Structures are given as structure tokens and as C-alpha cells.
Amino acid sequence: MDKLKSVLSGEETRRDNRTVLETVNEASTLGWGTRVKGFIACFVLGGVCAILGVCLLFLPRIGLILFIVFYTFGNICALCSTMFLLGPMKQLKRMCDKTRALATTIMITCLVLTLCAVFWWKNFGLALFFVILQVLSFAWYSLSYIPFVRDAILRLVAMCMK
């Protein structure tokens, strides 16, 4: 009976015209407590992976590879943890906002290029370079959420360069 009502009222056609992202956003109706727990779990997992990566850095032969993989995975977990608080659609929209679009693009590109440098190109110097860029781009991306901080940092750097 509900199906018939939705077809007759036109809601069925509106439901079929939804995009995949709208469907995902609608499916992510978690309670606030569950969202906070998911955020904490994902953020802590990211932090543990990053710390574990730093600890594994000093192992002979495979330490650098393990550091890069764990550190990159930790950054991905930390980035995804905010999706629990805001929801995936809202977070993706904020990531693509005009004030963050460049930082988001650079950050995600560095994450991907770091893994490519380790596993595909097997160039560890390049991988370390991308890890450094990861740190800088993740910091710049994070600072975009605090009003006027990036402008203040740019002014400070400009003053120091004079």
C-alpha cells in the first residue's frame, strides 16, 4: 500500500532520480553517540598507525616502507574520521569548498603518490618527499577549518621573508 501511495504521489520518481551520493548520505543516519564513537575510533586508529609507522622506521631494510605505509594509512583514517561527525556528503562538500579545494587536492594527491612511489615506482627518496608534502598539506588543510589562521601564517611568512 505504501508503494502505491508513493507511486501515485510522485515520490517514487523523485526517489529514483537520486544520485549515489544522496543515497549514501541518506543511509548514514547514525545517532550522535554512534557518530562520536566512530570518530574517536577512526581518529585513534589513525594516530596509532602514524605512531606505529614512526616506531617501525628504525627497522633495518623494511622500516622505511612500513613507516610510509602506516603513516599514510594513519592520515587516511584521520581524514575519514571527520566523516563520522558531519556525514560523508557534508564532509565532501566542505573538503571541496573554495577555501579548501586546493589543499584537499594536494593532500589526496600526496597520499596517492606516496603509495605509488613505494609500491609501484619503488623510489624511497621520492616517497619520503611525498610524506613531507603529506605532513605540510594535511597541516594546511587542517588550518583551513580555523578562521583567519592561514591568512595570519601567510602574513607571518611574508614578514619573515622581508
Protein described:
By secondary structure, the protein is an all-alpha fold. 81% of the residues lie in helices and 0% in strands. It is built from 9 helices and no strands. Helix 5 packs antiparallel against helix 7 (101-120) and helix 5 (63-86) runs parallel beside helix 8 (124-143). The longest helix is centred in the N-terminal third of the chain and has 25 residues, at 32-56. The N and C termini lie far apart (74 Å). The model has no long low-confidence stretch (mean pLDDT 85).
Distance between the termini: 74 Å
Low-confidence stretches: none
**Share of residues in helices:** over 70%
The radius of gyration over CA amounts to 21 Å
Count of β-strands = 0
Q: Secondary-structure element order, as H and E?
A: HHHHHHHHH
Mean pLDDT across all residues, rounded? 85
